Amino acid sequence: MSTHRYHRRDLNADLLRASLGVAACVTPMFFIEPGATATYVLAVPAAFFGLFGLRTRLHTRTIVTLDDDTIEMTGWTSARITWNDLDALKLSYFSTRRDREAGWMQLTLRAGGQKIALHSTLEGFEDICRHAFRVTQTRDIELSDATARNLAVIGLGVGDAIQHNETPAALSGWGNPADWRR
Which of 77, 64, 95 is nearest to 1 (CA)? Predict the structure, then answer.
């Protein structure tokens, strides 16, 4: 059995980003006339930054426990999936840059009505992906093309023809973004 938590450093960085975002949106509101259109324009992103900060704060309490029979997430939401009941696995890549070189991954596991979504900032994320991938192979669960490509990026799946030093952008069929400008 192994226990995993989100990296404190990543959570603190996200909390700082959320705080700066809220401050950048709320501070100008003190200098404009109440009811002005700018107030509403600034309130929407401030709310999004606030929700992001709240979600990040709740992640500080999240604990993921993995063993041979189950995966369980406790914290702000709780879910438990028995590996024998696993219906679907999805590994998504979200880029933060135009060249798709930087970003994060999210592993989503489903079994019946239960769903567990884990971000790549979770310590041991690749170990959890590896275990979940083995379960999909033994249970013959079909994976989407995007999931298969993303698993290949972290060294899982039918990666014989794929070099592991390729980026998710290159593996996704989009090719090298530098070639797009030619």
Answer: 64
